[in-house]
Write a structure and sequence with these properties.
about 325 residues; alpha+beta; Uridine Diphospho-n-acetylenolpyruvylglucosamine Reductase, domain 2; Uridine Diphospho-n-acetylenolpyruvylglucosamine Reductase, domain 3; Uridine Diphospho-n-acetylenolpyruvylglucosamine Reductase, domain 1; 5-stranded antiparallel sheet; 4-stranded mixed sheet; about 30% helix; about 25% strand; binds flavin-adenine dinucleotide
Length: about 325
């Protein structure tokens, strides 16, 4: 079966997706869905349909899926918890793959923890505290999955996932399974890694852990949870957390300036576009009050960034990843 971009627009692309779907289903044994709205898979509650949608809990199926989709020239979106994504209202003209790889395994000597990419971070941390296992308590209450946290080098309270990682299993765009123990492969930087650029999918991640006192771990986690409760929107509010990255330190070893501090000084907390609004308690958090569109969020973020640029001559860089076609950009 021929696949790849047939160069024909409009209705011919629809036929093309049908043949990609058939080939992907034959290769993987999965049942794929068509035109699945992504808003239900993002914490912002925004996003049009993915042309193709697959869910897998198996690393080897993930390998087949990724290599076949790559061979078909399909764009691939790996979905974790969807807590750091803004998906276009027009959707995603490719295949969204929901990585639901689960499982948590502690090494015999208790110093390595291997976790499936689809495991939710916050639940994992609670489980580790209950078992007296220390190392990831900095991430208490962090939304999203292990795969997303590693791919985006998520961090909080002075620590990042890149600092705790000691190895990982990834599937490459060619469908090869790699055991990565040289962490330079990940190219970790502030809130980013090379995972997306390498078109790879994290299937498991291994972290350095240690036996620790349960009540000490509980105290530390509770402090982080309190901090999040005070500064972040409640769980039922639709948001992707901080919209912009904090600024590079002005000198080596210095602290980052919080983007929220600059946004506060330009009155961002008062700003909104349609149902997209800045959270009243945090100038760097955009929320969806009810029916915000991606276009609303982009316009609001653009206005926020423009105010900061005008007052401080500083360009803010989004931390939230935009997926799909930007409004008005055409094919
Ligand atoms: C209330 C709130 C508070 C937050 N606080 C913080 C914070 O303190 N610190 C922080 O860093 N972030 C924070 N975030 C942002 C978000 O929670 C993190 O970035 C999180 O790690 C994203 O994980 P996810 O599984 O939801 O990833 P997704 O949003 O699903 O995906 C994010 C990126 O990772 C990629 N990805 C996901 N899974 C995989 C995989 N298995 N393999 C390869 N690539 C993958 C996706 O393709 C995408 O590019 C917050 C978000 C919210 C809503």
């Amino acid at each position: 079966m021929l696949c790849g971009d047939n160069g024909l627009p409009g209705r011919f692309l629809i036929l093309d997706f049908a043949s990609h779907k058939k080939l992907l289903e034959e290769t993987t044994g999965l049942t794929l869905e068509r035109d699945v709205p992504l808003r239900g898979f993002t914490s912002l509650g925004i996003g049009g349909p993915a042309a193709l949608f697959a869910v897998t809990d198996s690393p080897s199926t993930m390998g087949k899926l990724i290599s076949t989709a790559t061979g078909c020239g399909l764009e691939i979106l790996v979905l974790g918890g969807g807590t750091n994504l803004l998906v276009s209202d027009e959707g995603f003209e490719g295949i969204a793959v929901h990585a639901r790889i689960l499982g948590v395994e502690l090494s015999e000597d208790g110093d390595r923890l291997t976790v499936g990419a689809g495991v939710p971070v916050a639940g994992l941390v609670e489980d580790l505290i209950a078992r007296g296992i220390g190392g990831l308590e900095f991430a208490a209450g962090l939304p999203g999955t292990i795969g997303g946290a590693v791919a985006g080098n998520a961090g909080c309270f002075g620590c990042t996932f890149g600092q705790k990682l000691v190895g990982a299993t990834v599937v490459t765009g060619k469908g090869e399974v790699l055991e990565v123990d040289d962490l330079s492969w990940f190219g970790f930087e502030y809130r980013r890694s090379s995972v997306s650029a390498r078109q790879a999918v994290v299937t498991t991640a291994t972290f350095a852990v240690r036996p620790d006192d349960r009540s000490r771990l509980r105290r530390e986690a509770d402090e982080h949870l309190r901090n999040r409760r005070d500064r972040h929107p409640a769980k039922e509010i639709m948001t992707a957390g901080s919209y912009f990255k904090n600024l590079e330190p002005s000198e080596p070893g210095g602290h980052r300036t919080a983007a929220g501090a600059l946004l506060d000084q330009v009155g961002a907390r008062e700003m909104s576009v349609g149902d997209a609004a800045v959270f009243e308690r945090h100038a760097n958090i955009v929320i969806n009050r009810k029916n915000a569109t991606a276009e609303n969020v982009l316009e609001l973020a653009g206005r926020m960034a423009a105010k900061v640029k005008k007052k401080f001559d500083i360009e803010l860089e989004p931390e939230v990843r935009f997926v799909g076609r930007r409004p008005g950009m055409g094919f």
